[in-house]
Amino acid sequence: AMLLTGASLIEICKTQTRPGNATADATEINTQNLRVQAGGALAKHAQLVDALVSEANLNEDEKGLLLGLASRGLVLKHLLSAISGSGSEEQLKLMQSDGLTPSNIITMSDNSAKYGNPEAAARGYDHGLTKMLAVGQKADAGVIASVIRHRIEIEEKRTVVTTGAGTGAHERILELFDNAATHVSLLAGEYPADEAAWLVCTSYNRGVAHHRMRRYHEAMSMFQASSRLLPQACRADPTLSRMKGRVEEAVKTCANTGYIAVA
């Protein structure tokens, strides 16, 4: 009952909070009261679940059910935190709570991104992906691909393509594409075709943008990243083979600082 109460109150709060501007209604007394009530309901839910889990006579199924309710409560607590505009550290701390599944963490990261905290979202996606790969179960290629794309999109939104050298922005994005190449290679037979195409075309087009701004070193590194992605990406989407000639030509043209077309 406490979980449903908290969830219902949060849904009302969501209708009064605009994504990307989590603090827009922070001064509205009614919304503040709803958030307090939701937080109280979730706190009581957590206390009750903890008390029940501590009972020694629970069987594994009963304990599993309670732990599932506990993780659901944490996801809602994080959502409330995101809606309220809490800082990155507070949101990340919730994402690092015991008992959360990789799916829980990715959902929480999605909510951080939706409600205007890209820093928490980025770190949450990293944590969720790391945990997903560490559990020893069969990897869900679709989920991994989605996380990789969201992670790159967040980094791109945090820094425009005209960002000057020396900020580390290019290096961070390049590292993400290099990590993506590793995952595409490991999951080449299962990696979604549309996600593979997105990686190749996005890295290539980012190289074009750098080239047009006469940042030839950054352009070359992105074209090379696209080139590294291509062989395995083609296994997911054979039509990407048509990009091979374009990428190779871009590398040559970049060296001569000529015109390069967008993919």
Q: How does this structure look, described?
A:
With 263 residues, this protein is mainly α. The chain has a domain of 117 residues. It is 73% helix and 0% strand. The chain is built from eleven helices and no strands. Helix 1 runs parallel beside helix 3, helix 7 runs antiparallel to helix 8 and helix 9 runs antiparallel to helix 10. It is elongated. The chain starts with a helix and ends in an 8-residue tail after the last helix.
Structure at a glance:
InterPro entries: TPR-like_helical_dom_sf. The protein is mostly helical and 263 residues long. It contains eleven helices and no strands.
Provide tags for this entry.
263 residues; mainly alpha; 0% strand; elongated
Roughly how many Å is the radius of gyration? 22 Å
Share of residues in strands: under 5%
What distance separates the N and C termini?
53 Å
Write down the secondary-structure element order.
HHHHHHHHHHH
Largest sheet: none
Low-confidence stretches: 161-166
The assigned structural class equals mainly alpha
Give the count of helical stretches: 11
Task: Work out the number of β strands.
Answer: 0
InterPro entries: TPR-like_helical_dom_sf (IPR011990)
List the helices and strands and how they pair.
Layout: H1 2-15, H2 29-53, H3 60-83, H4 88-95, H5 102-114, H6 118-134, H7 141-158, H8 169-186, H9 193-212, H10 216-236, H11 243-255
Helix pairs in contact: 1-2, 1-3, 2-3, 3-4, 3-5, 4-6, 5-6, 6-7, 7-8, 7-9, 8-10, 9-10, 9-11, 10-11
